[in-house]
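Hi support team,

I submitted a single chain yesterday and got back a structure, but I'm not sure I'm reading the token output correctly. Could someone confirm the output below corresponds to the sequence I sent? I've pasted both exactly as they appear in my results page.

Thanks,
R.
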Amino acid sequence: VQGSARADSVILLHDAEVSGNVYSNALSSSGVVAGEHVSPIGVPVYLRLPRMPDIDPGETEVAVGKGDELVLEPGRYGQVVLAGGSAAEPTVLRLSGGTYQLSRLRAGKHARVECAAPCELRVSAQLRLEKEGYLGPQWEEQPAGDVGVYVGGDEGEDAVRVDKDERLRARIFAPAGRLRLGQGVVATGAFVAAHVRVGHGA
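Hi R., thanks for writing in. Yes, this is the structure output for that exact sequence:
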């Protein structure tokens, strides 16, 4: 994780690294904290955060087939699912920009969710990204802050689950649930959740 982490509890598994400080009441670490562990902290954690927007998904489900590419306009949708692709032919969901309200977003292995222009994803239940994919701006010169992700979810459950070797460039806000970053995940941006778990080498 590039930057600092702040939560009531933080778990860093083997080879996980936080380049800044960790602010938490509980820290279980087999990884590396380059900065300091600052404890105790007040809970709930108060930061200068955006207001959690209302999330009102629609009913239209969206499916992107293996190796296909789909451009999606802003709007209200139900579950959005990207089938797994391959390293040579990833499955791509390209968001043209604006606000998207979904019930769930699930992307399979070698699947990419790209924002061609600044966009906001509002997900009522869960965001799940499987291995070796990508979520962030379409172009490298776009800042990670161009992609805002707000996830509702349930207390104690995985609101955001990112599996092995995924790449994230975004601001992710899941104040009620757990944010889980798997082994080897490269995350750039800002990540806030009730509980944060960072896997091996992330």
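A quick pointer for reading it: The radius of gyration is 16 Å. Let us know if anything else looks off.

Best,
Support desk
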